[in-house]
Amino acid sequence: EPPVDTTYTTLPEAQHVFAVEYLPGQFDQRADSASQCIQLLSQGERPTVRSAKVYALYGKLTKKDVEAIKHYVINAVEAREASLEKPETLKKVMFLGEVMPTKQFNLWRRAMPQVKFANLYGPTEATGDCTYYKIEREFEDTEPIPIGYACNNTEVLLLDGDRLVTEPETVGEICVRGEHVMKGYYKNPEATRQVIDEEGWLHTGDIGTMNEDNTLFIKGRSKSMILSANGQNIYPEEIESKLNNMSCVLESLVVERDGKLVALVYPDYEQADEAGISYSDIQRVMDENKEVLNTL
């Protein structure tokens, strides 16, 4: 959204000026602290804050001197040179971490049609992101958003045990190899051996599929998978994604209890108010959602 309050400080003139910011996915303590302070002051949602360190250089410096200084102060592993342009509006949104519900994404897209969106994927052990998908088409609310393709200097494949999965729409564990992947857990070689094999592949524990175009989709975590009585693999995240797109559902969690699937739901009271649904009727809406969900 366009900024509501904009404040700028003009720096003293210098012969050469450049700024350095953290790479996307890297933790920026200054930005995080500022974001928390703004939230405390506003008593609202935590805003997104970006920060950069500005370097002003004085003296008789050649272009080669300036480039040498930049090379010295910018650690390419975690930082990059930042733009000095004054921001006018939001241009790009990249989301990662938890799976973005398509219903919520479409709300964002309708509200900000000028923004470019990208879905990123990657565990902490792979520096936060190792695949990307530029969202350049419309998605139905019930349609999952792909996690896409491997980033530069990264390889991604699906394994079923030791077998390489090549068949479209066949599940396998997402495995990653490349510069993004950690060397290992600190002082814990046993834990490292459990997730990184001899060929350097990080076994993420996430289950995914690829379509005929080799576009990668995530289905859920192998540890959260539920084996049904008839031997079917059930991924709670898939059910939660469908449930979260239903009427008056804000968030949900699917668990197994006594051999049955149970959905814990936090209602979307704001949507209920807008639709004229009384709080006493929300249970009826949830019962209708359950009937529809069982037919999918």
Q: What would you say this structure looks like, in words?
A:
Helices cover 24% and strands 29% of the residues. The chain starts with 15 loop residues before the first strand and ends with a helix. By secondary structure, it is α+β, with helices and mostly antiparallel strands. It has helices spanning 29-42, 63-73, 102-111, 189-195, 236-244, 269-275, 282-293; strands at residues 16-22, 53-57, 79-82, 92-95, 116-121, 131-135, 149-150, 154-160, 163-164, 172-178, 202-210, 216-221, 226-227, 233-234, 249-257, 260-267.
In short:
By secondary structure, the protein is α+β, with helices and mostly antiparallel strands. Helix content is 24%, strand content 29%.
Any key phrases for this structure?
single chain, 296 residues, alpha+beta, 4-stranded mixed beta sheet
Outline, from the CA principal axes?
Answer: globular
Q: Which percent band covers the strand fraction?
A: 25-35%
The pLDDT mean sits at 89
Question: What is the H-and-E element order?
Answer: EHEHEEHEEEEEEHEEEEHEEHH
